[in-house]
Amino acid sequence: MAKKEKSEYLIQAVSHALDLLEQFHGEVDELGVTELSKRLKLHKNNVFRLLATLESRSYIEQNKVTENYRLGLKTLELGQTFIKQMGLLRQSKPVLEALVANCNETTYVSILKDFSIVYLDVVETAMTVRVVPRVGSRLPAYCTAAGKVQIANMSDEELETYLPAKELKSYTPNTITDRDALKKQLKQIAEQGYAFDNEELDSGVKCVSAPIRDYTRRIIGAVSISGPSMRFSDERIKNELIPLVLKAGEEISSKLGFQK
Questions:
Q1: Does any domain span residue 15?
Q2: How far is the C-alpha of 171 from the C-alpha of 101, rounded, in Å?
Q3: Domain end position, chosen among 77, 106, 134
Q4: N or C, which end of the chain is more exposed by having fewer CB within 10 Å?
Q5: Given its phi and psi angles, is residue 244 left (phi above 0), alpha (psi -120 to 50 degrees) or beta?
């Protein structure tokens, strides 16, 4: 008997429940039955049954005032469990703390998810003026140092899956929106081993980032130093921040079994 494709084993009700949970992202914190019905293209009765099931297990809860629904505590518990289980976070935390001690700027560790990066952990600077922590947020890979350093070694075919299907959105005057120009920069990043974000996502914010590799030599994340552009002079970036972030990337990678 021919082996079945995994898609043949999918349970539609479970798939719909997951689709429902995924509607709560970004700035969307509450949704009503009617809106969920439109988004999922499901009858209201089906949506209500999904909500009732998820609510009974605390994955969804209802705001008694607005009667809309929002994510429940169980989703937070799952997320925290995922984070704790990741060796990347366990190994990178002390390195992030040491980085902050050395440069007194905010440091991050992130991974690539679809065509976005997700910051998993942050250690903040003690400076009054600092960047806003974005742990858990999804940010475009093509205009962030952490994203660019993780997609720099991809083939053109692989890269297309990590770029928006249509145009590259411009977030600031410095955002690279020309695909050829971006690919040229990515080749340079692959050669030099680090990436730089020159106010490409947020005006007034600069960032340097280095890749994190595991024992298979595969890039599995990135470590970054980010801060206000007024403190990130070209001289400081070249002489202090780039060497620090490269050393941090190598240290975390070594802890994960990477050998040159």
A1: yes
A2: 31
A3: 77
A4: N
A5: alpha
3-state secondary structure of 205: strand
**Identity of residue 23:** Q
Q: How many CB atoms lie within 10 A of CB 231?
A: 16
**What is the rounded end-to-end Cα distance, in angstroms, of the chain?**
46
**Alpha helices by DSSP H, 57-201:** 73-85, 87-103, 145-151, 156-160, 179-192
Residues 243 and 149 in one domain: yes
Domain that includes residue 54, residue range:
11-77
For strand 205-213 and strand 195-198, is the pairing parallel, antiparallel, or unpaired? antiparallel
Distance separating alpha carbons of residues 68 and 35, to the nearest angstrom: 10
Token pair of 251, please? 């240290």
- Token digits for 148? 């660019």
CATH number of domain containing 73: 1.10.10.10
In the chain, the number of structural domains is 2
Beta-ladder partners of 110: 119, 222
pLDDT per residue, tens digit, the chain (260 aa), is 444 565 677 899 999 999 999 999 777 889 999 999 999 999 999 999 999 999 999 999 999 889 999 999 888 878 766 665 567 777 888 999 999 999 999 999 998 887 788 888 888 776 665 566 666 678 889 999 999 999 998 888 888 776 766 688 899 999 999 988 999 999 999 999 999 999 999 999 999 999 999 888 889 899 999 999 999 999 999 999 999 999 999 999 988 888 87
